[in-house]
Write a structure and sequence with these properties.
95 residues; Arc Repressor Mutant, subunit A
């Protein structure tokens, strides 16, 4: 068994299993959105977490934006940093 799991409590293992089960029932778009909400801030980090290509993540971000989610992309240090913002913050940014 994985050493990471050996050190976890029973409750933590149950949480991980529930999280994995939920992830399997969600589509990629929902998985990307969940990771953005959790604070993942680069396309590469999301791709690595989900085991998919960065191109696939970019496509999912496009779909989310078309659905009305405000996902800012800011270039910093040669990498794009992502930030999910709510309507109120977006309205202030657009003033």
């Amino acid at each position: 068994m994985n050493e990471q799991y050996d050190k976890m409590t029973k409750e933590d293992l149950i949480k991980e299993l529930m999280k994995a089960k939920a992830a399997k029932t969600k589509g990629r778009k929902e998985q990307v959105l969940d990771l953005l909400k959790q604070g993942y801030d680069t396309i590469e980090a999301i791709a690595n977490e989900l085991g998919i290509s960065t191109k696939n993540v970019s496509s999912q971000l496009t779909y989310l934006r078309k659905e009305g989610y405000h996902i800012l992309s800011i270039s910093a240090g040669g990498q794009s940093v992502l930030k999910l913002v709510d309507d109120e913050i977006m309205a202030k940014l657009l003033k």
